[in-house]
C-alpha cells in the first residue's frame, strides 16, 4: 500500500531496507530518518545537496551500522573498473590535473515557461516541498527528473545531477578525500525558462597533489575531440599524467602517451571483480553486512565536493575546507550557509 508520509512506513518492523528515489531535496532527510529507524538504504544520486547534509548522512550510516549504496549506477560498469586499474598501475605517472565535463544544448528556451498553477488534486504540495522553502506549484517542477534539474531549490542544478556519474571515476581511481578548496563560477547566461539553475558552470577543486576541474554547459554541446578519427563527446574525464593522458567516458577509454615516456600502454590484468549489478550488490551486502563499493561513506566525498562548488558560486569566492575536521575554514558566512534551513514538513 502506498504511504502519503514516509515516516509512517519507517515505523514498520517488517521492513529491513528502503530505496530512496524521491526528488533530490528530500534525499538526505529521508535517508537519515531511515538510518535512525535501522533500515539499510539505497539512495539515488545526488545523495545530498548541502555540505552539512553529506557529512550528517555519513555519520548517521556509521552510527547506526547501516548498509548503504548510492545510485551512481555507472560505478558498476566494466569500463570504469578498467580505467581505475590503469590509473592505479602508475603507467600515467604522477597525475597533476584531472579535467571532467558534461555538455549539452537546451538553449535558449530550456524546459519552457509554463506558468505557476494550483497543485493538482491528489498532490499534497506542502508535503512535496517538504524541508525546502515554499514556492508556488509549477507543472515543470514535477514533470520529470530532467526538468527538475532546472530548479536549484529541489535539485541543486545540473552539476549535482550529472557530476556524480563522472567525477566518481577520479575519486575512485585516485582514492580521493574531500578537496581542500573549491572555486566555482557560472550563471544563467542564455537560457530563458521558468527555472533558475545555471546554464554554465566551471569548477576548480584543489587537492593536496593536484587540481580537478568540472565544466558544465546547457547551451553548447561541443566537446574537444580526443585522439584521431573520433567524434566529439558530450561527457568525460581526462587524467593528465607526466607520461600520458587517459580519456574515459561511460563506455570506453583511450590512452595517449607523451611521446616515448610511456612505451607500454598494455592494460594491467583485471583485478577488480565484476559487479553483480549495482542494486544486486546492495542486496547481497545486506545479507553479508559488508559495505557495497559505492557506499555513503565513499560517496560523501563526491557530494561534499559538489556542494562546496555550488556554495562557492553562490558566494562568488573560493571556499576552503579542512578534510580532517570536516569543516569550512575561515569563512563564517559559508559555514552558516553550508547548513540548510529546513522548513517543518
What attributes does this structure have?
single chain, 345 residues, alpha+beta, Dihydrodipicolinate Reductase, domain 2, nine-stranded mixed sheet, three-stranded parallel sheet, 11 helices, 12 strands, 31% helix
Give the helix tally. 11
| Relevant CATH superfamily of the domain at 77-257 | Dihydrodipicolinate Reductase, domain 2
Quick one: how many beta strands? 12
Across the major sheet, the strand order is 10-9-8-4-7-6-5-11-12
CATH architecture of the domain at 77-257: 2-Layer Sandwich
CATH topology of the domain at 77-257: Dihydrodipicolinate Reductase, domain 2
Q: Averaging pLDDT over every residue, what do you get?
A: 95
Describe the structure.
With 345 residues, this protein is an alpha+beta fold. The model has no long low-confidence stretch (mean pLDDT 95). The chain has a domain at 77-257: 2-Layer Sandwich (Dihydrodipicolinate Reductase, domain 2). It has helices spanning 6-10, 27-36, 51-64, 78-89, 125-129, 145-148, 152-155, 158-173, 278-288, 296-315, 332-337, and strands spanning 17-20, 40-44, 68-71, 95-103, 181-187, 200-207, 210-217, 235-241, 244-248, 253-257, 319-322, 327-329. The longest helix is centred in the C-terminal third of the chain and has 20 residues, at 296-315. It has 11 helices and 12 strands.
Amino acid at each position: 500500500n502506498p504511504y502519503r508520509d514516509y515516516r509512517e512506513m519507517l515505523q514498520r518492523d517488517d521492513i529491513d531496507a528502503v530505496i530512496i528515489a524521491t526528488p533530490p531535496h528530500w534525499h538526505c532527510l529521508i535517508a537519515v530518518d531511515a538510518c535512525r529507524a535501522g533500515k539499510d538504504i539505497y539512495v539515488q544520486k545526488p545523495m545530498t545537496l548541502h555540505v552539512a547534509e553529506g557529512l550528517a548522512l555519513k555519520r548517521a550510516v556509521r552510527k547506526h551500522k547501516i548498509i548503504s549504496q548510492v545510485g551512481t549506477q555507472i560505478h558498476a560498469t566494466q569500463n570504469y573498473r578498467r580505467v581505475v586499474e590503469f590509473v592505479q598501475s602508475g603507467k600515467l605517472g604522477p597525475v597533476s590535473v584531472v579535467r571532467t565535463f558534461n555538455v549539452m544544448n537546451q538553449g535558449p528556451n530550456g524546459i519552457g515557461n509554463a506558468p505557476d498553477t494550483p497543485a493538482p488534486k491528489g498532490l499534497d504540495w506542502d508535503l512535496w516541498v517538504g524541508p525546502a522553502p515554499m514556492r508556488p506549484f509549477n507543472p515543470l517542477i514535477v514533470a520529470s527528473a530532467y526538468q527538475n534539474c532546472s530548479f536549484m531549490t529541489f535539485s541543486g542544478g545540473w552539476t549535482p545531477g550529472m557530476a556524480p556519474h563522472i567525477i566518481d571515476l577520479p575519486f575512485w581511481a585516485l582514492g580521493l578525500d574531500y578537496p581542500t578548496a573549491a572555486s566555482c563560477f557560472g550563471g544563467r547566461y542564455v537560457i530563458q525558462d521558468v527555472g533558475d539553475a545555471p546554464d554554465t558552470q566551471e569548477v576548480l577543486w584543489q587537492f593536496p597533489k593536484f587540481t580537478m576541474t568540472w565544466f558544465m554547459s546547457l547551451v553548447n554541446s561541443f566537446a574537444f575531440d580526443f585522439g584521431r578519427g573520433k567524434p566529439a563527446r558530450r561527457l568525460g574525464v581526462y587524467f593528465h599524467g607526466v607520461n600520458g593522458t587517459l580519456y574515459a567516458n561511460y563506455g570506453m577509454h583511450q590512452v595517449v602517451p607523451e611521446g616515448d615516456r610511456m612505451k607500454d600502454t598494455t592494460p594491467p590484468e583485471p583485478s577488480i571483480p565484476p559487479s553483480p549489478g549495482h542494486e544486486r550488490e546492495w542486496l547481497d551486502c545486506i545479507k553479508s553486512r559488508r559495505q557495497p563499493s559505492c557506499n555513503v561513506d565513499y560517496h560523501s566525498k563526491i557530494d561534499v565536493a559538489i556542494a562546496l562548488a555550488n556554495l562557492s558560486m553562490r558566494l562568488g569566492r573560493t571556499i576552503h575546507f579542512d578534510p580532517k575536521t570536516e569543516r569550512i575554514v575561515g569563512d563564517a558566512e559559508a559555514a552558516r550557509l553550508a547548513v540548510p534551513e529546513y522548513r517543518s514538513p
